[in-house]
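New here. Your pick:
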Amino acid sequence: MRYMMLIYTKETDMTGLPASELASVAATHAALMEEARKRGVFVAADPLQPTSTATTVRRQGGKVLTLDGPFAETTEQLAGYYILDCADLDEAIGWASRMPTVCAGGEGSVEIRPLRHMTGAVAAPGQEGDQPGRG
């Protein structure tokens, strides 16, 4: 079963972090991704640019509107994601518990959501539904 792990952190806590702490967080993510690759569960992972670069597209009254920034004010912002092909939720929780959620004291959260297979949708090469032998 493929799981998306959404990493939330406080953007304001990221500003002013020493370069050494940012490097440590990046190294932890790199090591975690490499281990996930070696174990055959890694699908994708990327950090996101700050919410100030976001654009939200929504429909209202039959018209398409574009807005700067995220659609809601929150105390934590979506900072990045992983997609891992785990045997079950317990394995996904194990991986998520090792992800640095950065900021002072490592506060933040990781939301785990199983990905649904979309019948009739065009899948990316190698992603035609759930992989045999996994979840």
Helices lie at 11-14, 19-38, 89-96. The chain has a mean pLDDT of 83. The first strand starts at residue 2 and ends at 9. The longest helix spans residues 19-38.
